[in-house]
Automatic annotation (TrEMBL), chain B:
The keyword Cell membrane applies. This is ABC transporter permease subunit. InterPro entries: BP-dep_ABC_trans_perm, MetI-like, MetI-like_sf. The keyword Cell membrane applies. One of its GO terms (cellular component) is plasma membrane. Gene3D superfamilies: MetI-like. Belongs to the binding-protein-dependent transport system permease family. It is found in: Cell membrane. It comes from Paracoccus lichenicola. Keywords: Cell membrane, Membrane, Transmembrane, Transmembrane helix, Transport. It comes from the Bacteria. The chain crosses the membrane at residues 7-27, 70-91, 103-122, 134-157, 178-204, 235-256. Residues 66-256 form the ABC transmembrane type-1 domain.
Length: 289, 269
């Protein structure tokens, strides 16, 4: 990393990326900034509104509630998917045909369009035609994700665990694969317990990928939209209205451009902050392998 | 079999069951008629029928959804790789003014919530007359796919020793000729993985592709949501459409199975 030659002509190689990303990121973002400080009476007549929208968003109870739900959701997702993913990775076959087959089957949910993921669980959880709903009802549970907030949350969490745990497991598996056999042999000679092997060999070696897994899962669960939207549409009431659902409702449903833009910018800043942590940690880890 | 490996087998079997049963249920429903789905509850289709698939494959408003999705996904993959390849090379081989900031800025775009961009994209592409075209969706998906491709490719390129570049230049290769004839074959697997991930993330995304299209470039995923709300009860066709969206990913994943983790870690494993 350190001995790379300095060459500012490399900018020419980066130029195409800059142009494409400027068109698809910078220009739209400028529009957002523009809306966030203006108000309109229609007819495309805008006037300066200063930081009014930001104040409105920061003081909005509805958005606070959505943020609260979002943080709770991300926390639950991490608390379930990370340990479960590690556990699965430890149990995956190490080599041979079975290892390949298991890898492919595990990756399957990751490749399904997000609204189809929603559809699968929407159908699966229905009491009349879904296997899950039907089975729960037959066992005497009063399960109904459309009317009951707790059931709606449970359904969405199980769906997300189904959808993304394999990602955590695959990353941890890649980390485990990089541990030389000599480490395990040394542990056997020392008569280390299974827990000792995990605690002092496997966990430290997985550290790097695990961090990536935690951050990716945090970011993606923090901006989840399609899956809960398809399953519950944000309901019952507002029980599963997360930040992105709320934002899209505001921006495209009600066309509240100003507040939605201010909301977007705050949302984006939070993401930016987390990205920065992500980047710092990832590059630091790479320079000291 | 030792006790530990039998335990592992049990854990993996349970986990794979958890993953596959909901997919099986979709497949099960797709092979039933609506009357059978709502009428009798059965774990497998009693009278298997391909009628739902026939409906989709003979009705243009359905199958054009697949064609539209495939068009913009392929356009996006080609575009992302074309711009990402030289950039990844620059990041992996040289230091230049602002390189670290630029690399970080690219990452923030991968992390940007699509919901933030939905409305401005809609206005931008309407303003330049690209609304409801495939290229609009392809460009919009560049927002997260170009950074992803740059990061993955940079990871793979950094694994190629720089001596190869230097030797080629001494042998009189020009940069474009070296890049295409020598370097690209060396990172072929990296290009394959980057292409796979661009394809995949463009294929699974719905919010932006739905916002930017109405009729002519409507993706299959959006066609499905329309059917849910409009007719509300055509479960069999809905399930069949869902199964058909799973197929492309399932087919190509075998080829990149050993690199899936590397791709998800943005080329950093």
């Amino acid at each position: 990393m350190m001995d790379k030659p300095v060459n500012n002509r490399a900018w020419f190689l980066v130029l195409p990326v800059l142009i494409v990303v400027a068109f698809s990121a910078v220009i739209p973002l400028m529009t957002v900034v523009n809306y966030s400080v203006q108000d309109t009476f229609g007819n495309n007549q805008f006037f300066w509104n200063g930081l009014g929208w930001f104040q409105e968003v920061l003081e909005s109870d509805r958005i606070h509630a959505a943020l609260g739900r979002q943080l709770l959701f991300s926390a639950i997702i991490l608390a379930i998917e990370i340990p479960l993913g590690i556990f699965i990775a430890l149990n995956m076959p190490k080599r041979g045909f079975w290892a390949s087959l298991v890898l492919v089957l595990m990756a399957l949910p990751l490749l399904i369009p997000w609204n189809v993921v929603g559809t699968i669980w929407q159908v699966f959880g229905r009491v009349d035609i879904g296997l899950l709903g039907h089975t729960l009802a037959a066992m005497g549970f009063d399960y109904n994700y459309v009317n009951d907030p707790v059931d709606a949350w449970a359904t969405i969490i199980v769906m997300d665990v189904w959808h993304w745990t394999s990602l955590v497991a695959l990353l941890c598996y890649a980390g485990l694969q990089s541990i030389p056999d000599a480490y395990y042999q040394a542990a056997r000679i020392d008569q280390a317990s299974r827990w000792g092997v995990f605690r002092y060999i496997e966990l430290p070696k997985m550290g790097g990928v695990l961090l990536i897994a935690v951050l990716l899962r945090f970011m993606d669960s923090f901006m989840i939209y399609t899956e809960p939207f398809v399953v519950t549409g944000g309901g019952p009431g507002n029980a599963t209205t997360f930040l992105s659902i709320d934002l899209v409702k505001m921006a495209i449903g009600q066309f509240d451009l100003g507040p939605a833009a201010a909301f977007s910018l705050i949302y984006f800043l939070v993401i930016l902050l987390i990205s920065w942590v992500f980047y710092t940690v990832m590059t630091a880890q790479r320079e000291t392998p | 079999m030792t006790r530990a490996s039998r335990g592992s087998a049990v854990v993996m079997t349970l986990y794979l069951l958890f993953l596959l049963v909901p997919i099986y249920w979709l497949l099960n429903m797709s092979l039933k008629t609506n009357a059978e789905i709502t009428g009798a509850f059965s774990l497998y289709p009693l009278n298997p029928t391909l009628a739902n698939y026939r409906t989709i494959l003979t009705d243009p408003s359905w199958y054009m959804g697949y064609v539209n999705s495939l068009i913009y996904v392929v356009m996006n993959t080609a575009l992302s790789l074309a711009v990402a390849l030289p950039a990844a090379y620059a990041f992996s081989r040289y230091r230049f003014l602002g390189d670290k900031h630029l690399f970080f800025w690219l990452l923030t775009n991968r992390m940007a919530p699509p919901a933030v961009f939905a409305l401005p994209f809609f206005q931008l592409y309407s303003a330049v007359g690209l609304f409801d075209t495939h290229i609009a969706v392809a460009l919009a998906h560049c927002l997260f796919n170009v950074p992803l491709a740059v990061w993955i490719l940079e990871g793979f390129m950094s694994g190629v020793p720089r001596e190869i570049d230097e030797t080629a230049y001494i042998d009189g290769y020009s940069f474009p000729r070296f890049f295409v004839r020598i370097f690209m074959p060396l990172i072929a697997s990296g290009i394959g993985v980057a292409a796979f991930f661009c394809f995949m993330f463009s294929w699974v995304e719905l919010l932006l592709s739905r916002t930017l299209t109405s009729v002519n470039a409507k993706p299959i995923a959006a066609t499905m949501t329309r059917t849910v709300s409009a007719s509300g009860l055509d479960w069999g066709v809905l399930a069949a459409a869902g199964v058909l969206t799973i197929l492309p990913g399932a087919l190509v994943i075998w080829f990149v199975r050993n690199y899936i983790a590397k791709g998800f870690a943005l080329g950093r494993v």
